[in-house]
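Worked Example 4.2. Consider the chain below.
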Amino acid sequence: MRRGTYGIEYDDNPGPDLRRLWVPLVLVMVVVLPALFFRGCGGGGQEDKPEDELGSARYRLPEVEAERERPSFLRHWFFSRRARDAASKPADGAAVRRVGDTARAATAAAMAQPPRKLPPEVQRLMDQVAELENSDDMSGARKILLHLLTRRDADEIRAFVERKIGALNTAMTFGARPMPEKTRHKVVSGDVISRLARQYGNTVDYILKVNGIDRPESLRVGREIWVLQNPVFELTVFKRAKKAVLTLNGYFFKSYEISPGKPGLLPSGSYTVKRRVIKPHANAQPRSGASGTHELALSRVDTAPGLDAVSLQGAGDEFTFNQPPDGGAVRFRKADIEEIFLLMRTGDSVNFTE
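Applying the procedure from the previous section yields the following structure tokens:
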């Protein structure tokens, strides 16, 4: 039925009036299609909140926990077409060499400073780090940098952030300045360096170094000295990455480049520092390539037979560092092994992983 000129008339062709459907169809095209497009193309880094005041308590490798990229047909089409265009162009030998040189130069530049374009939130945090460093607030700068290690949208500057944290930790740990893990002890009658080292969980060498004391006998009553407050250092050796990561109380402290032993000779698993040796080869015939002044001999946790001859060694020079060490040894640069030697005590954990 419909209303006609002369009142109610019978409609021979009933059905919906399609003219009324154009409005919702236009709304669908305007709202839904752009939403689908931006959902596929957006990177959308997800922020991970720190567990406490220092950030995430565990060191993670970005390739292990990287966020999976959302599928996008348009992105797939774009990059596939670009790859086909690149493959269709003839390769020129000189051009390839120039590209290789440029890539190596770009890698070196990236290791020296972070990329210019960063996600807005990451850039804001980096600006805060710069402000805190300018005001000599190293602890505050380190706190933000530790948080950046937990953000997946900051993986591009991860190497830079790790170097910054390492530099700040070195300055605070070995300098006469405060940090959350340090405290001051006023020397009283009867205090000796070895007893204070046991009391606070430090090495004797560290207490002497950080306080500029030449000999343990030089400790004077009434003096205030810096000590670490029962620190827990743990070293993890990543064999394939040729990298060792030192953590303090579970937080990233510093990373070191290493020269691991020959494949198959360096085991995996958990070890502890069994013996700390200064100038291990001063009074004996030096072994091949073992010319460092400090060494940490390790012991397997499960006491498996035949796996006790593992050590962390120093290299006398850069040439020696680049030579594979003998047996189950890991070689560090001279300054790096001396720094680790000052911090790690007998019984501290050393882990080996692929």
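Residues 190 and 328 are 43 Å apart (CA to CA). Residues 1-11, 40-57, 62-111, 282-290 have pLDDT under 50 and may be disordered. Compare this with Example 4.1 before moving on.
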